[in-house]
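Journal club side-thread
Mid-discussion, someone asked how the predicted structure for our own chain would compare to the paper's figures. Pasting it here so we can look after the session.
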Amino acid sequence: MSNLFSGINARLRGTSTKAPGQNKSPITTSNGQPNSPTNLSQGSQSSSSLAPKIPPLPSSPSLAQNIGMDDAGNADAAGGDDIFDAYRLPRPLPLWLNAQYAKHIVKGNFMTLSARPKTVEQGEWIAHQVVEHYRNLWNFVRVIHEKEDDGTTICNPQTCPRMSAGTNHSFTWLNFRREPVELPAYEYITLMQRWISGKIDDTNIFPTDTNGVSYSHNPSITTTPLSQLTNPEDKDWVGNSSGFPENFVEVCQTIFRQMFRVYAHLYWAHFIDPFYHLNLEKQLNSCFSHFVLTACALDMLKPQELEPMQPLIDLWAANGTFPPGSKAYEYSNHRAGERLMQLANVA
């Protein structure tokens, strides 16, 4: 994935991203620019750098359920208009929901990047994925936080007064009194960056001593049953054998949830400016699709948490980006994705 960002530094030279000759205009279609986030969603979720646990999402039906999914996970016979009414998408549709602009710079099966090697312990693999996806994401955050000639940034309190993903989803932060407060997206992302960095740098959560690394039990290498290699009376958890704490998975789920919120904001508020204008939309698509595949495969994100970006996930399931058998594919509404491809005249 590191090669995806080879062109970013060349495009960021401390000048405005709207320099003459640098912008490009989307082809005129039925799709338009993403709306600026404005409303607080009932389905949003508070997060905190202080509280040990993130409050769970309020009970609300997922988008797939709103559309109508049967027990086998297939969409019902609802028409295209019914699908988009359930999604509550703006009209015209955001540009990133046009299949022509949802393409990738990387070709191939992303599952090969998300699959855990047989000999790698689960906790070690989750830790690796957290660090890798955090690094990928912040290459894009750096773009919207880069100061221009007048000292402003693309993402600022005027352009993004809330940490939102469209008009239907807005996220709040818990202050020092653990009260949910709305923050401008720039401030929310900055606080979250500090929180995630603090967790990754905390050796009590992400131990760095190589002597503590363990290997996953592989029956093809050893014939000793796993039950004989551990004491059944000992309490066990993911990452225990490699020195990760008992709450390690919970911390990583929170990190993935927060990173997803940033991606959602990037798409809804900044897909055209700056990423499309800088020819970085394919890099963004590549990293986000890899992120979703990994997060779902490791159970770091649940279906209801994907709601702000569910239409794009449906589109990628329909066009083959998310292969059958992956959890991201299972969490998608295929009829919705096929309808989006039809609107873009993609067979």
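Post-session note: The longest helix spans residues 248-276.
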